[in-house]
Write a structure and sequence with these properties.
Blueprint lengths: L12 H14 L6 E5 L3 E7 L8 E6 L2 E8 L14 E8 L10 E5 L2 E7 L15
Antiparallel strand pairs: 1-2, 2-7, 3-4, 4-5, 6-7
């Protein structure tokens, strides 16, 4: 039987940790979303803690929704920093075109809610069948 003994088992992981830490500090925040489909609209919700309505830029064109924003950075030093900071952009391609003039957006308790009505051409039509 052979045993391999390593004096410092985490010695090889230390340089990797530094790289991961630097990457995590420099990356942009990825905005997570939930999207539900209803008969006449898509409902999008996203967590945006600490942001106000004027901190967000939402654009809709055909079937594309783009959400941009920025978390204000503070200059304090932290031992651990997991809360989002910096700018973010999220572009989503939906399955159907959106009525851009009828989009409703609200933000409450750190949750962004978007109601994205489907264009008339994308809504399901009910066809009556007549019997002769």
């Amino acid at each position: 039987m052979t045993f391999f003994v390593q004096t410092y088992p985490n010695a090889q992981a230390r340089p990797y940790r530094r790289v991961v830490r630097r990457w995590a500090e420099n990356r942009e925040h990825a905005l997570g979303v939930n999207i539900r489909e209803e008969d006449d609209a898509y409902l999008l919700s996203s967590l945006v803690p600490g942001l106000k309505a004027e901190d967000l830029n939402i654009q809709v064109l055909d079937d594309v929704v783009r959400i941009e924003g920025e978390y204000k950075a503070d200059e304090n030093e932290y031992l651990l920093r997991e809360l989002p900071s910096g700018s973010f952009t999220r572009t989503l391609h939906l399955p159907a075109a959106i009525e851009a003039d009828s989009v409703e957006a609200k933000i409450a308790d750190g949750i962004l809610m978007l109601k994205l009505p489907k264009a008339e051409s994308a809504r399901p039509k009910k066809i009556q069948v007549t019997v002769k």
